[in-house]
Write a structure and sequence with these properties.
2 copies of one chain form a homodimer. With about 190 residues, chain A is of the alpha+beta class. Chain A has one domain (about 20-165): Winged helix-like DNA-binding domain superfamily/Winged helix DNA-binding domain (Arc Repressor Mutant, subunit A). The first copy, chain A, has helices spanning about 20-35, 45-55, 60-70, 75-90, 130-145, 160-165; strands at about 60, 95, 105, 115-120, 125-130, 145-160. Chain A has a 3-stranded antiparallel sheet with strand order 1-3-2. In chain A, strands 5-4-6 form a 3-stranded mixed sheet. In chain A, helix 1 (about 20-35) crosses helix 2 and helix 2 (about 45-55) crosses helix 4. The two termini of chain A are about 10 Å apart. Strand 6 (about 145-160) of chain A pairs antiparallel with strand 6 of chain B. Bound molecules: manganese (II) ion (MN) (2 copies) and zinc ion (ZN) (2 copies). Chain A binds a DNA duplex (30 and 30 nucleotides) through helix 2 and helix 4.
DNA sequence: TGATTGTTGAGACCTGGTCTCATCTAGAGG
DNA sequence: CCTCTAGATGAGACCAGGTCTCAACAATCA
């Protein structure tokens, strides 16, 4: 169920688990970002950053809110929804898996950019990173006179496990069409 | 305000407007598709196909429903929402510009596959088609043991016009951040 | 023609996300 | 420290796509 997969060198690879220091760094980065536009670093925002970085992997906003509640912090829905875009602009978060239903995010702070491959059967998410895509995208944008500011790129398919399961033990075919939706089958 | 733009050769370029024949072809194709799964070709479905093919370019579902109403056909929301995925599976429609807010569709029947480049400023949509992407995507899916079933690929940025408008006549910078959302600024 | 089974449509319902507004507070200045 | 003000918060109303329900309906076929 955990997406995982982090194939890039350097970084948090060896000793320190991503805890403390990463929060501190993010906080500093965010503070700078906020200062630049005369915004304020509040308790709520601090709490949200902590909660966010504590979650490894992709998470839906709803879960983040639950986390905050659990911690005793009363982060209101509105505040969270207002803060996440700020964190994104500040480069601390990035949107992930934006197909349909719910937005989800993931930490961006020490990571390379990447996109996602999602299994329609079980919701598994694999990350991929391919410089060629990035280059070609810039090329295309330029060709049309656009200044490229971002992209959504997501592949959907069936993972190996789900393919195997498909030609299953001959049991009744359950519900062949409509297996489940991308959102990791809620 | 209308996204528009359809730069691909052939098709509706010279003589025949995409009317009649295209509808007939789609109808036949859909009939075959339905037969295969013991579904029925009903009046509502016929009407929806016509309305759909009448719209050139990308359209949000809401507008399609309005079209139907206007024609006197009372296509219910539920029916339309149920039919569009069928038409998509049948290859008559394809999803388009699936970022955030609302789904939109476009005719797929005589067209090559393509993806989209969207202007964050004015909502303009440009289509692009690049075989290299398709190949690399298959490559990546394979590398992870996935059977690829589709993808969403959308570039976002600022079109030339909007960039020009940016360094505008020195008037007050309006509302620099939050220009508008992708959805063609509602 | 009748039986069977898929289809329709009005509207209730669901839910992620946004807005409102009274209240609070970060933080610059004194 | 104290004050002042513009930004921030949060409870909850609100909004809007989209889905579900269910009784009435109709395509197909024996
Ligand atoms: Mn990721
Ligand atoms: Mn298109
Ligand atoms: Zn799977
Ligand atoms: Zn533009």
């Amino acid at each position: 169920m955990r997406p995982g997969l982090n194939n890039h060198p350097g970084d948090q690879a060896i000793a320190a688990p991503p805890g403390e220091s990463s929060v501190a760094q993010a906080l500093k980065q965010f503070e700078r970002f906020l200062a630049e536009r005369a915004l304020r670093l509040t308790a709520a925002r601090r709490a949200i950053i902590e909660a966010v970085l504590e979650r490894a992997g992709h998470f839906p906003i709803e879960e983040l809110i639950a986390d905050l509640r659990r911690r005793g912090i009363r982060g209101s829905k509105a505040t969270v929804y207002r803060t996440l875009p700020l964190l994104t602009e500040a480069g601390i978060l990035q949107e992930a898996v934006v197909t349909g239903e719910t937005r989800s995010y993931e930490a961006a702070i020490g990571r390379e950019h990447h996109d996602h491959l999602v299994c329609l059967g079980c919701g598994k998410v694999v990350e991929f990173e391919f410089e060629a895509f990035e280059i070609l995208q810039r090329e295309i944008a330029a060709r049309h006179g656009f200044r490229l500011e971002g992209h959504h790129h997501q592949l959907v398919g069936r993972c190996a496990d789900c393919q195997r399961r498909e030609v299953a033990p001959a049991g009744p075919p359950v519900n062949a069409e409509h297996p489940n939706r991308v959102g990791s089958g809620r």
